[in-house]
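> Could you send the peptide-methionine (R)-S-oxide reductase prediction when you get a chance?

Sure thing. Input:
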Amino acid sequence: MLRWIDVLKYAKYSNPEPPQRVEKTEEEWRQQLTPAQFRVLREQATEPPYRNAYCRTYAPGVYACAGCHSILFNSTDKYHAISGWPSFKQPVSKSALRYLFDDSYNMHRIEVRCNVCGGHLGHVFPDGPEPTGLRYCINSESLIRQELPAGL
Ligand SMILES: [Zn+2]
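Output:
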């Protein structure tokens, strides 16, 4: 299980090796993604709080990256953080995400990206619920919710 100390180490030293890599040009991403998805995933934009697709959704399933469709989060780790964005306690695996220090807007935050395609997802904060103590605050536009495959 990931803790805040692990997140800090990943951001400071090096991130876990992704299971695979997807690399595309900016033009290819523009053709594949909707304008709203492109702004979040490729330009690090933040969507409006509350007025987004998955803020209040708790149906069972998994959440995949809207860019490369890698599975990133499980609905069982989603919780109500009253932040206005979908919030998760942990990713599906340690290698699903990469972490970067983000000092933009005069804030010291840790940015979270998809480890496979590098798409911007949101940020992670150390004020989440136990047992992880983590709050992954993620843009809905960077995610696609999928029903669980049969047998899982
Ligand atoms: Zn991705």
